[in-house]
Each structure stands twice: as structure tokens, then as C-alpha cells.
Amino acid sequence: MAAVWLLTRTDGVESVKAAQTTTAPDVNVEEQYVVLTDKQAANLKVMAAERRSFRTLRNAVGSIDFNQNMLVQAFTPYPGRIVDTFFNVGDEVKKGDTLFTIDSPDLLQAESGLLASAGVLELQTRTLARVKQLLKTGGGAQKDVDQATSDQQTAEGNFKAGRDAVRLFGKTDAEIDRILADRKVDSTLVVPSTISGRIIARNAAPGLYVQPGNAPAPYSLADISTMWMVANVIETDAPAYRIGQPVEVRLPAYPDEVFRGRVTTLGLNIDPNSHRQLVRSVIDDPQHKLRAGMLASFTIETEPPKLSVSVPIDAIVREGDGTMTVWVTTDGRRFDRRAVKIGMEQDGWRQIIDGLAAGETIASTGAIFLSNKFANAATG
To answer: Contact at 8 Å (CB) between 370 and 327?
Structure first.
């Protein structure tokens, strides 16, 4: 009975093993497919490969700088000593705001000349009126009237020239009229800002003698509504860049924000040491958040979007020999191993350049499980 029992037991074990062999996943190494049980198949997700739009992007790291095309050095138009200053580095100014004032000998001379010409005009005007009156009463000659008229017109021209000379120093007509009414000169020359922006350098100080164009400028200003993003891209990417391409800039200082701009300058040379090319972009910064010297990275779309077959990243397996594979199925049970050529990755999807057609069903999750099953069978 024991022997029969053992035989029966043995038969039972053999029967179970046979059943297990029958229900186990079928792996065919030569034809490169795996067949799963219903339970195993239920744990996998399948989906059809679909066509998606892929953007051709290039990335590089660089830094923020002032827009040098919008950088202004505020020099005095005439020599003199600085009387007062009104702004410091970092201050924002508007166009027309007074940056500093100087005591200008040239302005003093122009105003003095204006007052003198005004006095001569007044005298010649009275003289002309007097000789005209004498002519009417028979006590004067016509030649005296003609001479007085000529002298009065000359004086009037000199007066107008004197007003224009003072106006060149930035004085308004109202200020000129006040000088004439008070007969008092004011040698203080106002130097205004020619742009709206931020003070980035100051060398001005009361008492400092300044001259037009003599460096350093009393003030340097930058229009900060736009900034530069300066990067050096690798040599192999250089042909992909074009002036006018849109740019997306991200900074560690503002991780949740994207600043946008466009490529404006491409370097003419490749640096022989680093083998990189200069790419400069103008970035919009209406809220004035960017600072010169900030580290930044940019993304540039170098080509129009391409419509390509795509699969989720998890659907692709990198094999030991470097081959990229997906697992294709028609019934959800049998999965065929297929080598593919991949392209760009974007938003969790991978571009398939070759080896898979749109609409074919693949294992979107569990691809690594299928690959492991196949590898175990191949090495066993």
C-alpha cells in the first residue's frame, strides 16, 4: 500500500508538474516572442502606438547680462563742476529725470550774452522810435530812420541768437523769460536721463570737474525692459541656430517661471579651445526680475514640429547589447519582441523613427517584465 501510495503520490507530483508546464508562459527564443497566462496578461497595460508632434529642441547654459544696445552713458554736454547728484546705483529712473547738475561757465557766458543782447535790443528799439518821431515833426532825416531800423533789426537778430544759445543748454522758454525778467543769470546746468532704466554705475560726486566724453561717465544707465541671455553652444549644434528663433529661458532663481525671447546674434567664429559658438538672445523682462550675472539655461526650437510615431518611455527597453526594443501584441497574450530606432524624448513620450507603425499595439507597462522573461529563457 505504501508503494502504491508513493507511486500514486509520485504520479500526482508528475501530473502537477505536467500541468504547470502546460500553463507556464511560453517563451520562444528563436521567433522572439513570449506568451503570458491570463493572470500575467491582466497585470500588463497595452495601448496603440500613436502619432504625436515632437519639437526639435536645443539646450544650453549661459548667463544673463544687460542689453548692451540699450546701455547709455550719461555725460555732461558742457564742462563744469558737479553741484548735486540725485541717484545711486540700483535706482530706477524715468526719461527726463535729473541725474546731476553742474556749474557751467559756458552756460553763464551764454546767459550773460543773452542779457547783453536784450539790453542792446531795448536801446535800439527806443532809438528807432525816437528818430521816427523826429522825422514826423520835421526834425530828423530819413537816413537816420533807415540806420536806426538796420541797427534795431541787427539787435533783434542777436537777441534771438542769444535765446537759442541758452536754449541749447536745456533751458525752457519759461526759464529764459525768467532770466530776462529778473536780469539774473543761473549757471546751473541740468543733465537729464535720456532713457527710462536703472542706474548700473555711478562716478558722479559733488565738486568733481567733468567734461563731455571724458571717461568714466558720471552715470551709466541700462534699459532693463529687456536683457541679454549669452550662451556658448557646442560646435555640432551650431548649424541648427538661426536669428529670430524663439527662446525659453529658465533660471534657478525663478524655478517656476519661463522667460521668453528670441535669438538676435550668432557668433561668427567657433572658439578653437572650447569648440563652442556664441548665441545671444534678447529676453523680455517687463517686471525687471532678471539681474546681470544670473545663471540661466535656454531651450530653442530649431526646427518646426514633426509628427512621428511615439510610445510611452516605459514601453521601451534598452537591451544588454544596446538595442532598443518594444513588445508588440495583437491579442494581449502573445508579445513579439521588436527592435526599434528611437529619437527625441518629450513629455514622457519617445519618438520612434523606425521599426513600429502607428496603430500597432504594444505593452505600455510591463515591457521590462517581458524582456526579463525572454532573457531568462535565452540564458537558461
So the answer is: yes
